[in-house]
Amino acid sequence: MDLKQIAFLGLGNLGTPIAENLLQAGYHLTVWNRTASRAKPLVDLGAKQTENLVDAITPGALVISVLADDAALEEVVSAGFLEKLGSGIHISMSTISPDTSRKLAGLHTAAGSSYVAAPIFARPEAVVAKVGNICISGDAKAREAVKPVLQNFVKGIYDFGEDPGAANVVKLLGNFMIGASIEMMAEAFTVAEKSGIGRQQIYEMLTQTLFAAPIFQNYGRIVANHAYEPVAFRLPLGLKDVNLTLQTATKVNVPMPIADLVRNRFISALAKGRDNLDWGALALGASDDAGM
C-alpha cells in the first residue's frame, strides 16, 4: 500500500494548510476541489490537479477528504470512488454525524477498502503551526497505518477505537464545549463592559489566571475585540455542528440545555444576516441582549 500517494479532496480553510504540510513533508498529492481555482497555491507547490475527483485516486493508496458536511461527503463517496480506491484507505476529516461515519465505513468495508474517521481540532493557523489535535476511530490496521501521515500536521493524535462514529462524537462534543465557552465569555465580557471595565482588561486577567487555556485565550481574544473577520470557520457551520450534537445526545437520551441555548444564539445570528462571519460571532448575541 502506497501511503505516499494521496488524493486530497477539499481545499477550504483547513484543507489547504493540511495539504501544504503534506507536500512539504514529501507526499505526492493529487488535489480536487469544487472551486477549482483554490488549488493553484498547491499546484505551485508541486501538487497535481484534476477536475474529476475519481481521477485523483490511486488504487490501493490513500484518500484524505476535508469536506463541509455530511451531504458533501456522501456525494463524494460514490460507487466509482470506492471501486477506484480498491484496497486503499480513506481518511475522513469532516465534522459529521457519527451515524454517517458508520454508514460510510460499512460501504468501504463492503468494497474492500478501509475508512478512518479523523476530525481535527484546529483553526487554520494551528494547522500551519502543526499544533492541532486529531481524533481517530475505525478499522484498527488502518488507524495504525495512517498515524505517520497525520503526524505531519498535528501535535496530538487521540485514538477512540474501532467504532467509526466515536471520533465524530468526540469532535461534536468538543465543538459544543467551544461554543458554550464563547457564550460564557460573551456574557461575562458584556457585564464587565457595561460596568465600566474594558473587555480587553477582563480578558487579559482571566485568560492568564483562572482560564489559562488555548480555547479561552484564542476565542477570548476574538470575543473581547469583537473580531469576527477574517473567517476561519463560518457561523452556519457552527449551527450545523450544534444541531448534530443535539441529535447525537437525543439518540442516547441525554438532555443538553446549554447546547439548546448555543443553538438559539446561532439561529439568531443567522436571522440577523451574520452568516459570513466567523462562528465566534455568536458572542454578539449577548451584546444585542444588553442593548450594545
Automatic annotation (TrEMBL):
Keywords, in A-Z order: NAD, Oxidoreductase
Ranges that cross the membrane: none
Residues covered by the 6-phosphogluconate dehydrogenase NADP-binding domain: 5-156
Record-annotated 3-hydroxyisobutyrate dehydrogenase-like NAD-binding domain positions: 165-280
Entry annotation: catalytic residues: 171
Record-level Gene Ontology MF annotations: 3-hydroxyisobutyrate dehydrogenase activity; NAD binding; NADP binding
Pfam families xrefs: NAD_binding_11, NAD_binding_2
Superkingdom of origin: Bacteria
This enzyme's EC code(s): 1.1.1.31
Gene3D superfamilies: N-(1-d-carboxylethyl)-l-norvaline Dehydrogenase, domain 2, NAD(P)-binding Rossmann-like Domain
PANTHER family named among the record's database cross-references: CYTOKINE-LIKE NUCLEAR FACTOR N-PAC, OXIDOREDUCTASE GLYR1-RELATED
Record's protein name: 3-hydroxyisobutyrate dehydrogenase
